[in-house]
Design brief:
Low-confidence stretches: none
Mean pLDDT: 92
Shape: globular
Structural class: alpha/beta
Radius of gyration: 13 Å
Strand order of the largest sheet: 2-1-3-6-5-4
Number of strands: 6
Largest sheet: 6 strands, mixed
Number of helices: 3
Distance between the termini: 18 Å
Helix content: 25-40%
Amino acid sequence: MKIIVTANAGGVRIENPGEFSSLSVEIAEDLSGAEAQHELGPLGRLDGDHVWLDRDRLRALVVPVGDEALSSGFDRMVDYAVRSGWTSSDGTQIRSHITPSANEAGQ
């Protein structure tokens, strides 16, 4: 799953929302840190080369109510993040790395 942050089209969109084997955040190269934070809003908080994502807000974006298969997949992703040390101490935030935008990567 990739969270894409831009200055248009609502600011945040989710690419491959049911793909729980990876999690990254891509921030458009033309956004400053303050602009990216504004677009992320309550979904996440920038922290250097990472973003702390609000677990419950992310779940609400990618798991439709009543979809047990996606809910189970999301829970497995969170469990992996916990085991890997990629969550806040209270478990409400998931740390994700920031990947270069497609333009930065030369695509």
